Automatic annotation (TrEMBL):
InterPro entries: 6-PGluconate_DH-like_C_sf (IPR008927), 6PGD_dom2 (IPR013328), 6PGDH_NADP-bd (IPR006115), HIBADH-like_NADP-bd (IPR029154), HIBADH-related (IPR015815), NAD(P)-bd_dom_sf (IPR036291), Tartro_sem_red (IPR006398). The lineage of its organism: Bacteria, Bacillati, Actinomycetota, Actinomycetes, Kitasatosporales. Residues 169-288 form the 3-hydroxyisobutyrate dehydrogenase-like NAD-binding domain. It comes from the Bacteria. This is 2-hydroxy-3-oxopropionate reductase. Residues 7-166 form the 6-phosphogluconate dehydrogenase NADP-binding domain. GO terms for biological process: glyoxylate metabolic process. It is an enzyme of class 1 (oxidoreductase).
Length: 297
């Protein structure tokens, strides 16, 4: 594609990465991608992107490298080492990590990249699969103002609320807080659902009126059908929310913040995972409440 837009390498084409990379292609960007699953590479190619055989090949000529992988170990695996991003991206490139990882991992990555002349932003997102598909994600960013300003057009093709939250790691800290609020909110909704059903109320009607008042939330809007239909096909897996609750409880301990309700919900997420529900959507917190309330699920 002959245009003046920066060329983009995209590493990690999962539930979030695939639709996000496709939104950049739709916005006119030249996107070269790498991921572990062959069918995801085929999907990128079908959407007008270029499939690369390795991380090194994907990033070699890119102006901007974007990563979207599950957790800190995967970010470290693709960033470091002879076949990683830092050794193979060109000096002056901008690395935008949109994964949700520990703030410290982001801080360390930015420091290591600086030695290679590579600029870094941590830019985790909220909005789930639907937000990724619709390009209405909330993007919380940590890093330098100048790099943020340069990346803004890219972010605008992916999301709607785009905010620089502070220095390296700040995006991850805000994302951790986001995951705390979302988990507690889903848990409260799940408890309400079980209470309403056991009381014999019309659940759909009840959730509609609740969502119109102070109890309403983006969580309830997005997850209402999951609750009503017991449809737990993953938009965001319990396994990943378990990882995130570990990040927020650990980070809170480090800074001396007490999260009493968050700690309880973290354990409820962990218990769901222990019962084999890790691959389900986080709205499946409803299953834990049902079990505690005597249902066989």
């Amino acid at each position: 594609m002959s245009n003046n837009l920066p060329t983009i390498a995209w590493i990690g084409l999962g539930i979030m990465g695939s639709p996000m990379s496709e939104n950049l292609i739709k916005a006119g960007y030249d996107v070269t991608g790498y991921t572990l699953e062959r069918e995801k590479l085929d999907r990128l190619a079908a959407a007008g992107g270029t499939a690369a055989p390795s991380v090194a090949e994907a990033v070699r000529d890119a102006d901007v490298v974007i990563t979207m992988v599950p957790a800190s170990p995967q970010v470290e695996a693709i960033a470091y080492g002879p076949d990683g991003i830092l050794e193979n991206a060109r000096s002056g490139a901008l690395l935008i990590d949109m994964s949700s990882i520990t703030p410290q991992t982001s801080i360390d990555l930015a420091a290591a990249a600086k030695d290679k002349g590579i600029r870094v932003l941590d830019a985790p997102v909220s909005g789930g699969e639907a937000g990724a598909v619709e390009a209405v994600l909330s993007i919380m960013v940590g890093g330098e103002q100048a790099d943020f300003d340069e990346a803004r057009p890219v972010f605008e093709a992916l999301g709607r609320t785009i905010v620089l939250c502070g220095p390296h790691g700040s995006g991850q800290t805000v994302k951790a807080a986001n995951q705390l609020i979302v988990a507690v909110n889903i848990q409260a909704c799940a408890e309400a659902v079980v209470f309403l059903e056991k009381s014999g109320v019309d659940l759909a009607a009840a959730l509609d009126v609740l969502n119109g008042g102070l109890a309403g939330s983006t969580v309830l809007t997005r997850k209402k059908d999951n609750f009503l239909n017991r449809d737990f096909a993953p938009g965001f897996r319990i396994d990943l929310h378990h990882k995130d609750m570990g990040i927020v409880t650990d980070a809170a301990r480090t800074v001396g913040a007490a999260l009493p309700v968050g700690a309880v919900v973290a354990q409820l997420v962990a218990s769901l995972r222990a019962q084999g529900d890790g691959g389900l959507d986080h709205s499946a917190l409803l299953r834990a409440v049902e079990r505690l309330s005597g249902a066989q699920v």
